[in-house]
Amino acid sequence: MDILIVTGSISEKSNNKKIARWFDRQYGGQVNLTHFPLASIPMFNEDIEDDPNTEIDAMRRLFDQADGVVMITPEYNHTIPGVLKNMLDWASRGKRALKDKPVFMLGGSTGRFGTIRAQIHLTQILNSPGVAAKLFARQIQVDLVDQKFTPQGECLDPTTEKHLKRGMDEFLASLTL
Ligand SMILES: Cc1cc2nc3c(=O)[nH]c(=O)nc-3n(C[C@H](O)[C@H](O)[C@H](O)COP(=O)(O)O)c2cc1C
Predict the structure, then answer these.
(1) Which of 5, 75, 169, 177 could form a disulfide with 109 if both were Cys (CB 3.0 to 4.6 A apart)?
(2) pTM for this one?
(3) What pLDDT digit, counting tens, does each position of 50-79 carry?
């Protein structure tokens, strides 16, 4: 099974990339995991959207090949980061790269409320007619994320790890139905 991991942060020291590495450690032997190259996506601009655009072609191929998408969002100013929204705007155009694609959404923030506010916005975006993804019902918010993962993706909090495993196991099971 091919799973594409989209992490909505382009920072090398990103806490959400630590969560992405947790998926590598836990599920790398079970499914084929690919990490989406978010930093390669140009700024959306209608003036260039019909020009041959290798990054956007590659983006569409990656979504096309994936049986499911794990989308890990940070929370910036109570919403999703601009880099993630920018990619979703591209995905909403033309062949609509995420249309009907199963998406398991989660995220980590250093605050006490996790990414709940960002995930409410991401739900709206994924359900918009242009994006039209198939959002998996279970979502996970990791609060105090900087205290819960090592840079190598080890989870230091058993409760968080239990929720992540349950969510991902249920998501993978939903893809084989
Ligand atoms: C521009 C900016 C805005 C932020 N806004 C929020 C916020 O609204 N809520 C929150 O819980 N954390 C907020 N934070 C803290 C982030 O949760 C924290 O920096 C987190 O590590 C970002 O994810 P990343 O490390 O994967 O990029 C913000 C951080 C930045 C840089």
Answers:
(1) 75
(2) 0.98
(3) 888 999 999 999 999 999 999 999 999 999
- Which residues line the pocket of ligand 1, CB cutoff 6 A? 9, 11, 14-16, 74-78, 109-111
Question: The domain that contains 126 carries what CATH number?
Answer: 3.40.50.360
* Ligand 1 atom at shortest distance from the alpha carbon of 11: 27
Among 9, 75, 150, residue to substitute to test ligand 1 (most atoms within 8 Å of Cβ): 75
> Long-range contacts made by residues 93-100, C-beta under 8 angstroms, separation at least 24?
93/49, 93/130, 94/49, 94/60, 95/60, 96/130, 96/131, 96/132, 97/59, 97/60, 97/63, 97/64, 98/63, 98/69, 98/126, 98/131, 98/132, 98/133, 99/131, 99/132, 99/133, 100/132, 100/133, 100/134
Tell me: the pLDDT tens digits for 143-172?
Answer: 999 999 999 999 999 999 999 999 999 999
Per the structure, the complete domain to which residue 110 belongs is given by 2-175
